[in-house]
């Protein structure tokens, strides 16, 4: 009985006591050329798309929080999970809800950047593009995110600098006439009564705009419950594949990761080794690696997985075409 007491106590500690660590490991992968819950992951509406084959899988890292001592030890001993201090994932002073909200915002931004990067690669011309409409605000119900602004009071605006210059000659309460283009709809004209803003003495339109490639069709992304910006590259490749003739994958199972900028530059991400493990387990034979992640990726590459180094969207497309033709590709 005396000998059993410490064993029972230790068992209780394993089951009850939580540790300040989060486990990271291989997460699910999603084919950006395929469907999830009956919807295309990347859906293009309003223009012709072309058949695709193979896979372009985005990859994720799974994480588990609120681990008991027993769970932490089990995960660590499995050799497939990495334990990191919780503060690295959920910084002090921020709730889990706040961190998750920020990750979801990053994911949404990555979808928008992926669309712009793909359209830029495909040489669609830039326009003053509405990124966000303040609601309530002067433009609410009149302009929408995704609209292209062509003119203000009859003055053509080809970029944000010209758009801002015209607005700086207005006053709060003034009515301005906006010529705009809307995706999958005829061009329109909106009359907007400008509001005021404490940060400026000229009229406030209530829109955030940016210079971005613009196309008359809609690109929708249907993938929920995934956070962070690291799917950008694979989203862009899916858009390019669907809008161009030929077969970008060569019927291969390709996976990858990487943030994407509006300019098409591919950025580094976290958890590269977990993502490669998830990709190989799903059946991938090729993995697209951001150049700045190459050293880490090469240190622990799953057997049977070919690493391709990419720095830009254009380089990623060229590498996929090179594989199809049997030409060499950049590697880690």
From TrEMBL:
What keywords were assigned to this record? Hydrolase, Protease, Serine protease
The residues responsible for catalysis, as annotated, are 230, 275
PDZ domain location is: 104-184
Single GO molecular function: ATP-dependent peptidase activity
Per its record, the protein catalyses: Hydrolysis of proteins in presence of ATP
Q: Name one GO biological process term.
A: protein catabolic process
**Which top-rank group of organisms is this from?**
Bacteria
The UniProt record lists the EC number as: 3.4.21.53
On whether Ribonucleoprotein is a keyword of this UniProt record, the answer is no
Q: Where is the Lon proteolytic domain?
A: 225-323
Which family is this protein grouped under? Belongs to the peptidase S16 family.
Can you name this protein? endopeptidase La
């Amino acid at each position: 009985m005396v000998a059993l007491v410490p064993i029972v106590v230790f068992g209780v500690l394993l089951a009850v006591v939580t540790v300040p660590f989060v486990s990271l490991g291989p997460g699910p992968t999603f084919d950006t050329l395929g469907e999830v819950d009956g919807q295309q992951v990347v859906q293009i509406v309003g223009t012709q798309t072309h058949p695709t084959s193979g896979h372009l899988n985005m990859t994720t890292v799974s994480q588990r929080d609120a681990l008991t001592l027993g769970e932490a030890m089990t995960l660590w001993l499995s050799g497939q999970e990495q334990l990191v201090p919780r503060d690295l994932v959920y910084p002090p002073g921020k709730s889990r809800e706040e961190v998750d909200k920020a990750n979801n915002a990053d994911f949404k931004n990555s979808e928008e950047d992926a669309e712009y990067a793909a359209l830029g690669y495909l040489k669609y011309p830039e326009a003053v593009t509405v990124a966000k409409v303040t609601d309530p605000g002067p433009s609410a119900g009149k302009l929408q995110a995704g609209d292209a602004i062509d003119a203000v009071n009859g003055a053509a605006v080809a970029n944000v600098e010209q758009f801002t210059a015209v607005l700086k000659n207005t006053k709060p309460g003034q009515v301005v006439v906006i010529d705009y283009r809307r995706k999958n709809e005829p061009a329109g004209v909106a009359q907007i009564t400008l509001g005021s803003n404490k940060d400026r003495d000229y009229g406030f339109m209530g829109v955030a705009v940016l210079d971005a490639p613009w196309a008359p069709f809609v690109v929708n992304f249907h993938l929920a419950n995934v956070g962070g910006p690291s799917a950008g590259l694979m989203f862009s490749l899916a858009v390019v594949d669907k809008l161009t003739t030929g077969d970008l994958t060569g019927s291969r199972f390709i996976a990858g990761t990487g943030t994407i900028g509006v300019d098409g530059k591919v950025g580094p991400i976290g958890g590269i080794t977990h993502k490669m493990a998830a990709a190989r387990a799903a059946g991938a034979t090729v993995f697209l690696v951001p150049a700045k992640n190459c050293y880490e990726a090469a240190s622990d590459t799953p057997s049977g997985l070919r690493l391709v180094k990419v720095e830009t969207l254009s380089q990623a497309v060229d590498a996929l075409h090179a594989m199809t033709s049997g030409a060499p590709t950049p590697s880690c």
